[in-house]
Amino acid sequence: MIPSLHQHSEDLRSGRSSSLELTERALDLAAAADGEGARVFTRLYADSARASASASDTLRAAGLTRSPIEGLPVSIKDLFDVAGETTLAGSVALRGYPAATESAVVVQRLIAAGAVIVGRTNMTEFAYSGLGINPHYGTPRNPWQRDVGDIDGGRIPGGSSSGAAISVTDGMAVAGVGSDTGGSIRIPAALCGLTGFKPTASRVSMQGVLPLSEYLDSIGAMAPTVTCCAKMDAVLAGETYVAPVAHPLRGLRLLMPTNVVLDGIDEQVASALQTALSRLSAAGAVIVESKIDAFSELASINAKGGFTAAEAWTWHRKLIAEREAAYDQRVVSRIKRGKDMGAADLLDVIHSRRRWIAAVERQLAGFDAMIMPTVPIVAPKIADLQASDDAYYAANGLILRNPTMINFLDGCAISLPCHVPGNAPVGLSMAAPGGHDHRLLSMALAVETALKS
């Protein structure tokens, strides 16, 4: 069991531990020669992390705490600007480009809250895949079925926030901050047995974050529990933290889509999902299974690449002209799909999205939230996907499919572990329309309790 932020904070408050001790432990694990650290982090901030931890301990000794994450080691994804550094976004194509003149807003908020930033985490290059495979810095391995003796073995962590997830599962951080354009927080959370929260896109500032899609990008965190994610979300959004109160499960109306989201589901996910639904029903939740017609339309709306292809091509076209050979070729091939999209194609997606959101929200009226498997399969083996383009693209499309629905909805969503401990990690997704973040966290808190019972 991974300790929660609350447990760590209680240890700091009681004097059983110090921020410097927590930070040294995180840095030791990140630097261990036989560990995952070399694949998890693209850059460690050992000196500044120790200085921040020492400062936090001094403030705490004086009776001062700046936030619920005061003195806790956290990691940040490699697409957040840090003043004085070039943001590489898991790539080598930007090496030598100008450094950021100021840190991203979310980085500034973490520092102001007293978080100890231990390092930048590895990711799918430019955040353009849900698998987490990175040919430049290596691929962090999923803790499930990890073969420590074989550095080329193991299963994917999920992406694109791959290193963020493993930094938490392996104790190199108590929470990992990432981005989510089509599931890049919820996918690694689901595949690695963590909780991952994707807020409404407009809730957290994207200033100083290397974009994939300004229409879909959102910033959130992966951590052990719902409450941990709520604490991180408050800091990232610049709000005062108010602890969520569990919403009563009895009478809670949950819509379970029956089309698209269950296609291709494997036996382990299906079993975990059924057990989760049974537990929620036994606790008094009302689960209604129904087709959501709009879900069947999304593939055709995005057939030419959608927002991500159009926007990624716009951002990358000059860099690709200069340094295409430096890219992960599986990533650049997807970005180049946007080259064939015209203004009319993008406008079609924009207009279709408005109608699509309205249609989904009409079906959600009368329900408290929507539930579905975060992803329909357990984590595939890294080697299998590295060896075959067909396997890579098939797995990527399948793994991105369900969470992408919520980004297109402009909604908020959370992935909760719902598997039996020791089995393959499986995530249960809860989602709601945009702006219902606090209520969703309250409902998720109650669901989390039921799933652990």
Main sheet: which strands, in order across?
1-3-2-4-6-5-10-11-9-7-8
* DSSP strand content: 5-15%
Q: Major sheet: size, sense and barrel closure?
A: 11 strands, mixed
Class computed from helices, strands and strand pairing? alpha/beta
Distance between the termini: 15 Å
Proportion of residues in helical segments: 40-55%
Total count of helical runs of at least 4 residues: 16
Q: How would you state the average pLDDT, rounded? A: 97
**β-strand number:** 11
Could you write a compact summary of the structure shown?
With 453 residues, this protein is of the alpha/beta class. The chain contains 16 helices and eleven strands.
Question: What topology emerges from the helices and strands here?
Answer:
Blueprint: H1 5-14, H2 19-31, H3 37-40, E1 41-44, H4 46-61, E2 73-77, H5 105-112, E3 116-121, H6 162-169, E4 175-180, H7 186-192, E5 195-198, E6 218-223, H8 226-237, E7 253-257, H9 267-282, E8 286-290, H10 298-301, H11 306-323, H12 329-335, H13 343-364, E9 369-373, H14 382-387, H15 389-409, E10 412-417, E11 427-432, H16 437-452
Parallel strand pairs: 2-3, 2-4, 7-8, 7-9
Antiparallel strand pairs: 1-3, 4-6, 5-6, 5-10, 9-11, 10-11
Helix pairs in contact: 2-4
General description of the model:
The chain has 453 residues and is of the alpha/beta class. Helices cover 42% and strands 13% of the residues. It has helices at 5-14, 19-31, 37-40, 46-61, 105-112, 162-169, 186-192, 226-237, 267-282, 298-301, 306-323, 329-335, 343-364, 382-387, 389-409, 437-452, and strands spanning 41-44, 73-77, 116-121, 175-180, 195-198, 218-223, 253-257, 286-290, 369-373, 412-417, 427-432. An 11-stranded mixed sheet has the order 1-3-2-4-6-5-10-11-9-7-8, with helices on both faces. Strand 2 (73-77), helix 5 (105-112) and strand 3 form a beta-alpha-beta unit. The longest helix is centred in the C-terminal third of the chain and has 22 residues, at 343-364. 54% of the residues are buried.
